[in-house]
Amino acid sequence: MTAASPLLDAAPGHRLPVVADPDRAAIARERILERLGEAQGDAADDLAAFRAFLEDPTGRRLIDGMACGSAYLTQLAVIEAPVLARTVRLGPVAAFDEIRAGFEALKRQGGTEAQVMAELRRLKRRAALVIGLADLAGIWSLAEVTGAVSDTAEAALQAAFAHLLRDAARRGEIRLDTPEDPGPTSGLFALGM
């Protein structure tokens, strides 16, 4: 592993995206760094790793190629710049594991409808960024990418169902055998295609 990022060790340089518009890429880098601002603690380590990543030609090409080829991922990278920097420092597997843990915590802790909805959106956005970056870098196979997308969908549904079941129990409409994790014993299921 290099000092800068596990992504540099894993990303095959020949598969990285083309940088079609260097000016657009520079603007995206600037916006991401601006969003990271003055980080402290673990975030400072993430920021340092991200800066080192941008100094490496492969790292810069990955971020610049993302900026030129995917407006959606670029928007996510700006909004979730700390997650981008953390993914650069830890690698996509560890970053995705943190996001999964966030879904699990949401499922177990819940909150108001507005809180659950906002947290679901945030976690799905973060998952999309990590999955997209791993895919764009060519370090996850198609099976790993689609598996992560499926895992994200399942985790989001489980958290939403847990909230709905707890809400129905609070209103006296149902009784929960396991309020801390109501889904598995509820009989509620969803079919998706």
Describe the structure.
With 193 residues, the chain is mostly helical. GO terms for molecular function: [glutamate-ammonia-ligase] adenylyltransferase activity. This is Glutamine-synthetase adenylyltransferase. Keywords: Nucleotidyltransferase, Transferase.
Average residue-wise pLDDT: 90
Shape: elongated
Please report the distance between the alpha carbons of the first and last residues: 39 Å
Tell me the number of structural domains: 1
Q: Please state the CA-atom Rg, rounded to the nearest Å.
A: 19 Å
Helix/sheet category: mainly alpha
What is the chain-wise order of helices and strands?
HHHHHHHHH
Q: Main beta sheet, described?
A: none
Q: Which stretches are poorly predicted, pLDDT < 50 over at least 5 residues?
A: none
> What's the helical proportion of residues?
over 70%
Number of strands: 0
Helices, by number, come to 9
Instruction: Please indicate the percent range of residues in DSSP E strands (runs of 2 or more).
Output: under 5%
Domain Glutamate-ammonia ligase adenylyltransferase repeated: 104-193
Organism: Tistrella mobilis
Pfam family, one: GlnE
Keywords: Nucleotidyltransferase, Transferase
